[in-house]
Amino acid sequence: MRDPNIGEILIQADELRARIADLGEQISADYAGREIQLVCVLKGAVLFVADLMRQLSVPCRVDFMAVSSYGSATSSSGVVRILKDLDHSIEGQHVLIVEDIIDSGLTLQYLLRNLRSRKPASLEVCSLLTKPSRREVDLPIKYTGFPLPDRYAVGYGLDLDQRYRNLPYVAALTDDAVRAAGGERPAPPAEPTR
To answer: What is the pLDDT of residues 171-194, one digit of tens each?
Structure first.
């Protein structure tokens, strides 16, 4: 029986697998002859980075960062704290940030600025999901899996208060579930003008 807080399934498990295989092929072609240092942004990107690594045909290493800009809220505050930093230097490395979702872009903007200061040979971004309608800053995102509507998404690593990460698909929570968690209900679409 499906959790009543789970609304519409936005991306099925087989669609995720197919797109991640495509991303792995594209990244492998772009980094042919080089080793990649993957930087997985915890906790949401763990499932994605594990599946992506298995699709890469080039050598790679992985390190982890944990950053927070949400606190207990359901939308980014824009104030970023590093909760866990990288274990190894990225100087001179070809670095690929692996994100689960890019919403406003404020957290990623901070992360890019921070990692650029560490002098990598190159720095790119791969995000499984993105919400273009919520973007507040222009960012160089080289690899993207799927655009999402402005709905609170869970599953495949995405959570609400640490729940739902283990779902094999990406789904939207019901408006009632988001409200109960202290979030806001998405605004209805604007009426067309005549």
So the answer is: 999 988 888 887 654 444 344 443
Ordered DSSP codes for the chain: ---TTEEEEEE-HHHHHHHHHHHHHHHHHHTTTS-EEEEEEETTTHHHHHHHHHH--S-EEEEEEEEES-TTSSS--S--EEEE--SS--TT-EEEEEEEEESSSHHHHHHHHHHHTT--SEEEEEEEEE-GGG--S-----EEEEE--SS-EEBTTB-BTTBSTT-SSEEEEPHHHHHHTT--PPPPPPPPP-
**Cross-strand pairs, 41:** 65
From the candidates 103, 138, 159, 176, give the one annotated as an active-site residue.
103
Burial class (CB in 10 A: 0-12, 13-18, 19+), 98: buried
How many CB atoms neighbour CB 189 within 10 A? 8
- The fold for domain 13-148 equals Rossmann fold (3.40.50)
Residue 189's nearest CA partner among 131, 149, 137, 153 is 149
User: Could you read off the pLDDT of 89-100 as tens digits, one per residue?
Assistant: 999 999 999 999
The answer to whether 103 is a known catalytic residue is yes
